[in-house]
UniProtKB/TrEMBL annotation:
Family annotation (InterPro entries): SusD-like_2 (IPR041662), TPR-like_helical_dom_sf (IPR011990)
Transmembrane parts of this sequence: none
Pfam annotation, one family: SusD-like_2
KW Transmembrane helix (keyword) present: no
Assigned keywords, A-Z: Lipoprotein
Record protein name field: SusD/RagB family nutrient-binding outer membrane lipoprotein
Source organism, top-level taxon: Bacteria
Gene3D superfamilies reported for this sequence: 1.25.40.390
């Protein structure tokens, strides 16, 4: 993919030089200068569908960045591989081509599509709702990228394909967040029942503008809380604004894309379909066992038929034999229930459970007058019920009641309890699980210190920029490094202070 980007640049300059070296008419020169990639007449509804179906990404970045780094770094999955490096985040091994997978894929595909959609619809006064939805989708996708890398191309992103700007500047994450929050606020107000509705071509909400407005404010709540370490005053302000605007209120508000075999398939399902060696982390399984969590029976499957058993992070084939709690046979360790990672499993962007836990946190911080315990309990219930979207049986009301009575909300360690439940609720959404853990730092995780690791035995705080950026966009990527810090796994992004 890196070669393709360089080839595009070389080809572009070659064509321009050749165009001016031959005699041709003015019309031909004008035609040559038109952007062949620009979408002129594609109906907004069809383009919206494409943007939404593309939003979950593909197996490439899910397999390498989300699962390979994020989900392993927060100790939800583990593996014993070294040579094939199934999960480099399990041992903090410097497999940089896994590290830059999201960046690599995003700017070659998703960024240009969502930017083009927002740009096209902004120019048409009849496309008010399409534009508002596009602005929300743009924030939803870009915040995933900036949370992983920090400073990224944002204001000039996607312009290579649209205006031939192949060398985008990197925006500071502080500025990106300010713009994303403003975009969410504007989009929520912009949604209008009197303007054209996308209807069924909106594959997420079927044209339900109320749900889009709730998603916009719920995303504002998420991004507002991201600022809690670096700018508490701004964090409080945005959190209050989001809650006043109206966030998700039940499971029907969940933001997700459904997949189907033969169509656009689940990137996480595709990843698990290829790699059969990933296992549930012992940290995650032990936490569920310690709390008597009924989700363990939903999430865990042991191929050899034995009891649930997590795999400790940081083991290899040799140390598994000597230190593995179930011995050296990898089939004795818990895999992810195959029913949850099918190629037609849904892709989750934001759940009602997350919103309830964020409301609980806001109440604990004194930024909201709701009852923290009520929202915490609501979040636990919703997190367990959310697995129904995957076609599996969920814990009964009695089982959830028993779980809550056995693990009652405790105001003295409220943030820890909320952080742990959020961590569990975002399992299989690695982007969010990894980002929120870095912000709130619960649950408390014990890092591994595998020989030759790239972090000195500390959990990675970000992923690395692609090597190709230093070859084709060196001035801009080096400016980002000058602002943010070294292109290392231990450099913290702006909000992670």
């Amino acid at each position: 993919m890196k070669i393709n980007k360089i080839s595009i640049i070389i080809t572009y300059f070659f064509v321009v030089i050749m165009a001016f070296s031959i005699t041709s008419c003015a019309d031909e020169l004008a035609e040559l200068n038109e952007n062949p990639n620009a979408i002129e007449d594609l109906p907004y509804g069809l383009q919206l569908t494409e943007v939404q179906l593309d939003a979950p990404g593909g197996r490439y970045e899910m397999r390498r960045a989300a699962l390979g780094w994020g989900i392993a770094a927060v100790q939800q999955l583990a593996d014993v591989s070294i040579a094939t490096s199934i999960l480099p985040g399990d041992k903090y091994i410097d497999f940089i081509d896994y590290s830059f997978a999201l960046f690599d894929r995003y700017y070659l595909q998703e960024a240009k599509e969502v930017v083009d959609f927002v740009t096209r619809t902004a120019e048409d006064p009849e496309a008010v709702n399409y534009n508002a939805i596009g602005r929300i989708l743009k924030v939803m996708s870009f915040h995933k990228v900036t949370d992983l890398y920090g400073d990224i191309p944002y204001s000039e992103a996607g312009l290579g394909y649209l205006t031939n700007n192949w060398f985008p500047a990197y925006d500071r994450q502080e500025d990106i967040y300010a713009d994303m929050l403003s975009e969410l606020e504007a989009a929520a107000v912009q949604l209008s029942s009197s303007a054209e509705n996308p209807g069924t071509q909106d594959v997420m909400y079927g044209g339900d503008l109320t749900k889009w407005r709730k998603l916009s404010y719920s995303m504002m709540l998420r991004l507002g809380l991201r600022l809690s370490k670096v700018d508490p005053a701004a964090s409080e302000s945005w959190v209050k604004k989001a809650i006043a605007g109206g966030v998700m209120t039940d499971l029907d508000d969940v933001a997700k894309v459904e997949h189907e075999i033969g169509g656009v398939t689940s990137p996480i399902g595709d990843a698990f379909d290829v790699d059969k060696f990933m296992r549930l982390s012992d940290t995650f399984v032990s936490w569920m066992e310690d709390h008597g969590d009924p989700r363990l029976d939903i999430l865990s499957w042991v191929e050899n038929g034995g009891p649930h058993q997590g795999l400790p992070n940081g083991l290899d084939p040799t140390t598994l034999t000597t230190e593995g709690p179930a011995g050296g046979d990898i089939l004795d360790y818990s895999q992810v229930n195959q029913a949850l990672v099918q190629r037609d499993s849904p892709s989750m962007f934001m759940t009602y459970a997350e919103v309830e836990f964020m409301l609980a946190e806001a109440a604990v911080r004194g930024w909201y007058n709701g009852d923290a315990e009520t929202h915490y309990n609501n979040g636990v219930r919703a997190a367990m019920e959310n697995w129904s979207f995957y076609g599996v049986s969920t814990p009964s009301t009695a089982e959830v009641d028993n779980y809550l009575s056995s693990n009652p909300y405790n105001a003295t360690n409220a943030l820890e309890m909320i952080g742990e439940q959020y961590w569990a609720a975002t399992f299989l959404n690695p982007w969010e699980s990894y980002s929120n853990w870095r912000r709130i730092e619960y649950p408390v995780l014990t890092p591994v210190n595998y020989p030759g690791n790239a972090t000195g035995g500390t959990i990675p705080r970000r992923l690395k920029y692609p090597i190709v950026e230093f070859n084709v966009n060196a001035e801009n990527v080096n400016a980002a490094i000058s602002n943010q810090g070294p292109n290392d796994y231990t450099t913290r992004v702006w909000w992670d202070k």
